Amino acid sequence: MIQFFHVSKHYPGGQTALDDVTFSVLRGEFAFLTGPSGAGKTTLLRLIYRGEVPTSGRILVNGRNVSSLPRNKIPYLRRTLGVVFQNFRLIDRKTVFENVSYLPRILGADRTEQRRAALEALGRVGLAHRLSAFPPQLSGGEQQRVAIARAVVLQPEILIADEPTGNLDPDLSWEIVRLFLEINLRGTTVILATHDRATIERVGGRVLTLDGGRLERDVAVSGTTPPDLSAMAEAAGAVEPAEVAGGDEPSVAADADGEADELGHQGDQGPEATS
Ligand code: ADP
After folding, report:
1. Ligand 1 within 6 A of 271 CB?
2. If residue 9 lies in a helix (H) or strand (E), which one and from where to where?
3. Per-residue pLDDT reduced to its tens digit, 222-252
4. Which residue of 5, 22, 155, 213 pairs with 40 in a disulfide if CB–CB is 3.0 to 4.6 A?
5. Mutate which of 4, 16, 42 to test ligand 1's pocket (most atoms within 8 Å of Cβ)?
6. Average pLDDT of 33-51?
7. Best mutation site among 8, 15, 47 for ligand 1, i.e. most ligand atoms within 8 A of its Cβ?
């Protein structure tokens, strides 16, 4: 569960990215986050995984105050969160398998377990047959699917996506959005930032709208052509959320050097230029 209480974020130089934002996203929910460029979407997502700290207000992720987490606890938080970005952030010189199994590997999984986890995650996105390809050999849609597999390889409780379809054409975008819906049906909480109105109108559901850093709307809308959830549930092998979500404590050991950040959080220096 994600809770924001009167959260504001002012960047040095006086830029206000978020202004008194309060909302909750419950465990197992799927929520769109939308608003024009510069509205504060990326900042809000970065605050969830401690890519930034708020100037004021409180943020709880699974009951823990994210802003007051000591540095050495941040990797634990991030292991309960998967993050997907617009520009994929795959490591081009590593194979699909190496990209997806990176996190299990640095957390000490043996080769068999790395392979099992990577195959499971890549199977979910339909790319289990591309283990030895390098990202530049894949299409944009495929690269984003690999990035999603990497984000879910440890079965995170929460999946955050920042304009994940921003670089893709409409048909591919829809396939990617369907994957997020399937992952949500397995019990993962999903927050997907997009300014693609067509996708939001098609899917419907919870929509948080930011404008100028303020949460202007928090509504549930009905979709025009909502996806066939029962077929998707079958494809996803859906289970009850309680069966998927782990406890509060991550079950994996911390990496000493914080290398986990290279996955998903690598190069995380600021907002996407196009977001
Ligand atoms: P969105 O994702 O909706 O496009 P952002 O969260 O990226 O919005 O940005 C919100 C506002 O904060 C913008 O005005 C942006 O210029 C500013 N901003 C974002 N990141 C930084 C930063 N690191 N330093 C200064 N200003 C920033």
Report:
1. yes
2. strand 2-10
3. 888 767 777 777 766 655 444 433 333 333 3
4. 213
5. 42
6. 97
7. 15
102-138 pLDDT, tens digit per residue, is 999 999 999 999 999 999 999 999 999 999 999 999 9
Domains of the chain: 29-37+72-262 (3.40.50.300)
Nearest to 188 by CA among 152, 161, 223, 164: 152
The pTM score is: 0.85
Q: Which atom of ligand 1 is nearest to the CA of 43?
A: 6
Nearest CA to ligand 1 atom 18: 17
**DSSP state letters, 92-127:** TTS-HHHHHHHHHHHTT--HHHHHHHHHHHHHHTT-
Tell me, using a 6 A CB cutoff, whether residue 37 lines ligand 1: yes
pLDDT band at 159 (very low <50, low <70, confident <90, very high): very high
Closest-CA residue, ligand 1 atom 7, reads: 271
Measure the CA–CA gap between 225 and 239, rounded to whole angstroms: 24
> Which residue has the least CA distance to atom 17 on ligand 1?
17
Rounded CA-CA distance 20/8 in Å is 5
Evaluate whether 200 touches 34 at the Cβ level (below 8 Å).
yes
Nearest CA to 148 among 101, 88, 91, 233? 88
CA distance 169 to 150: 22
Phi, psi dihedral angles at 86 (to 5 degrees): -60, -40
With b for 16 or more beta-carbon neighbours within 10 A and e for fewer, the 72-103 pattern comes to eebbbbbbbbbbbbbbbbbeeeebbbbbbbbb
